[in-house]
Structures
1.
Amino acid sequence: MDRTRLHDLLSRVQSGALDIDQALEVLKTLPFEDLGFARVDHHRALRKGFPEVILGQGKTAQQIGAIAQRLVAHGQPALITRLDEQKAQEVRVALPTLRYYPDARLGAVGESPVPPVGQGTILVISAGTADLPVAEEAAVTAELLGNRVERLYDVGVAGLHRLLDSMEKVRAAAVLIVVAGMEGALPSVVGGLVDRPVIAVPTSIGYGASFNGLAALLAMLNSCAAGITVVNIDNGFGAAAAATLINRVHA
């Protein structure tokens, strides 16, 4: 249930096209629907502007399919994160229309808002090719949440001229998501060059002393560039959600 559907429902009651009992039947699963193993939050789109997102990691294909089916039945798109290819094939048995994005490890059912509801463009920047799974999770999620998205990949600080060659695109973005592993320096560089929000995403890519992304996380948290926000290690989805909220109020 989102603002548009709720407004339509109330308008139909007001006009007499729908009686109160029929409206109550529609509203009875608000604010959530109890499936026993999960309580599906149908109210979230009304509160946040986009529906509940399903974390595929740790759930069975049957659980994922059941939750997604209930979201779709209520007219909401279903987005599934951390969905590996084998599990996606199993989920498709219950949801034949599932679209799978292997690079991003995402599944989706239903359509994203058209036209995009975000005011500007979200630019996803990655330091290296090894960071692409997290960068693509951010980029595809942002697209499915109704944003115009551009990508700028493999422009890390070991060859900074690659980033500087694309500064027109960098400065044109409304929000920037910067994804980096190793020492995690790229968000600080980008943050020092733009006057737009920068969301830094540390990845678990790197050798031993990177401690599976902890070194990059600490470097980003200690950035000397003002205005940088940091999400958790490998959390491309979280970066996209934050960027979406920013992009809906700032161009």
2.
Amino acid sequence: MENSMNTAVIKASQLVKTYQMGEVEVNALRGLDLEIRRGEVVAIVGPSGSGKSTLMNILGCLDRPTSGGYALDGIEVSGMNDDELANVRNHKIGFIFQSFNLLSRATALSNVELPLRYSGVTGGRKERARAALEAVGLEKRINHHPYELSGGQQQRVAIARALVNEPAMIMADEPTGNLDSKVGQEIMDLLLNLNRKNGTTLVIVTHDPKIAAQTGRTIRIRDGVVDMEVL
């Protein structure tokens, strides 16, 4: 039996994404190949216009490629419709954003419950949300609203929200971008510890070379293809 740590969570082959901007055709991805194994911590970097954002939208099941194949956790998703993509996204991917994206009028507990609601979970939602908040050290803040929390605490809520559905991978888009360097490092340490403890696959988009250097592999995107990989 193949070691589960060596199986691909992400397997993209010859991804092409073309946009029509008026009379101009923009080739954002140009036959990109990419594989990320279960349990890896990978940074994706690249300059503006490199195709990095387009790639992340496709990997996150927010968009479809013009051509090419993409399998997420063994499921071919490149040809799915919007409803099918939403279903896969809700069950397979946890998102962490630079701006936290928390509901301001909801408590930390309610924010973390949201993915469970979207996935159709009916029983034990509060218990699972509470356990996720405990895992990120916020057991004493579960009834606080985002405006009552520091930036670092809000990002911890966002991490708990990403974890609560036990996704195949977590995609973090500049997760430390709105935090000072000390708090940003605390968040990075938390993510790395979750990877070591639970084997959570992490895909981190970052412009910060210090963040990228802490991952197991850095993938640089340029001109719509993988330009370089650094272990």
